[in-house]
Amino acid sequence: MPDPSNADEPVLVVGLGNPGPRYVGNRHNIGFLVADELAARMGGRFKGHKAGADVLEGRLEGRRVALAKPRSYMNVSGGPVVGTARFFKVDPPRLVVVHDELDLPYGTVRLKLGGGENGHNGLRSISKSLGTRDYLRVRFGIGRPPGRMDPADFVLRDFSGAERRELAYHVDRCADATEALVGKGLEAAQNLFHTR
């Protein structure tokens, strides 16, 4: 877990999504949207990294952070995540993964350490590549698909018009939660963001 008293111990924050213009507005790409917001706050730009991710180094909440977006597809994101973590010498408890979550209502943000993958192929790939599930997650609720729609189709669809009207607010709040997690630690961030 990030030690709030050790600001020079790096944390790796990974936003999950699929690369390319076809996927930009998809629910599955919420991790990329949050990573882009964090990059704007850090005042930097992503650059291609040999580990297979776009990476930005800087500080969040006064702490050293490597912010990354894997360049691979979601279901094989484990390789780039592990490669980036090794490069920056970040062990799993200092890895923060921002991702979409079907089991939470739209716009809900929840933070946790470890646990299952709930059928999320990106998390499954990361857990398998790391050899552990004990990394931090920032879960952004996208809700369940309507009717009998396959969840795999639902996550690869764009947010609805009604959802898009509130999306910037929710992305901003998710970025706030990620910053709090990095700067204050899991329990303090949960106390701030799980009550609303």
Automatic annotation (TrEMBL):
Its main location: cytoplasm. GO terms for molecular function: peptidyl-tRNA hydrolase activity. TRNA binds at residues 23, 73, 75, 121. The record marks 18 as: Discriminates between blocked and unblocked aminoacyl-tRNA. The active site is at residue 28. Hydrolyzes ribosome-free peptidyl-tRNAs (with 1 or more amino acids incorporated), which drop off the ribosome during protein synthesis, or as a result of ribosome stalling. This is Peptidyl-tRNA hydrolase. It comes from Actinophytocola gossypii. The lineage of its organism: Bacteria, Bacillati, Actinomycetota, Actinomycetes, Pseudonocardiales.
